[in-house]
Amino acid sequence: MSPAKSASPPLVTAVVRTYNRADGFGRSVDTVLQQSFRDFELIIMDDCSRDHTAERARAYEQAHDNIRYIRHETNRGPGAAFNTAIAAARGRYIAFLDDDDLWRPDKLENQLRAFAEADDRTALVNCGVQYWDGETDTPLHTWIPTMSGDVYWQALGSSGHIFGPPSAVMMELEAVRRTGPFREDMPRGCCQQYYRRLAREFRIRAMERIGVDYYYHKDAITYVASRADVRKDIVSRRIRLDTFAEDMPKVPETYARELGKMAELHFRIGEIAEARAYLRQAAGYASLTRRERTIGLLCTINAAGRLASALLWKGRELRSAMKAPSAPQGTEAGK
Known about the structure:
Layout: E1 12-18, H1 25-33, E2 40-46, H2 53-63, E3 67-71, H3 78-88, E4 93-98, E5 102-103, H4 107-117, E6 122-133, E7 138-143, H5 152-156, E8 169-172, H6 173-179, H7 190-199, E9 203-216, H8 227-243, H9 252-268, H10 272-283, H11 290-300, H12 302-320, H13 329-332
Parallel strand pairs: 1-2, 1-4, 2-3, 6-9
Antiparallel strand pairs: 4-8, 5-9, 6-7, 6-8
Helix pairs in contact: 8-9, 9-10, 10-11, 11-12
């Protein structure tokens, strides 16, 4: 059994976010309990699982004095799960772990050391990640963070996941609360959007040591499989563009590519007028790519554009039918 919870709050709040993974989330919980750093509480944050997650999570809660189980009454998505856990957290620092990832035993200890060595404006420390094929348990590749300091403009100028997955990040809770809540209306991508918001005011510290084993599973693969999924992507990207509307034009190449991606998404679902509008906007910031010019050409004649969009979509549906199903809302966007 873990050491009894003291009257004073713990230094770290660890959060395992889970959804419908009763037979697997325990591996993640166990890697938190096996941390070399011991002054932590653990919140199991359940986004209304429909399997027997609750039964197993309550067993952990009963067996360990420093574990709390929190469950949403309805499935509210990743942003809400982050916010509920943050509101309940008692630590000075907070670190999230997805229910199919694992922490290495010294992950918290090393990130806390990095915070101790950093200046007072540092609010986020990330670490390296080893990616695995979850079906064959074979290593795929590693990711090592490289950006430290005032990275906001670098982050804004990159469209990738430069902060790493949520399982690799530790944040100072006071800075998190000053930054504000995660967006609960973003179907996907709320983490990377949030980290960029935090980087506007605070500094980042990159820790090169690997602290997370990240597993790809068939039920966690995210890809565009339906028009509804495309619509989710459009909504999420629109929110991101609106959030950084004042600053995105100052990184014109990235801004143009984001606008071009919006044009492509609208084109995929036959919204030709919207696609053309985004392409015109993109062309005002940087030269269009060959792919964007091709979409623009197909959009010039409305009927041709709609036919090409329909053919493109039919091909995507056929390819998607041969792939794994996309992840449920509670797990998909956090990765």
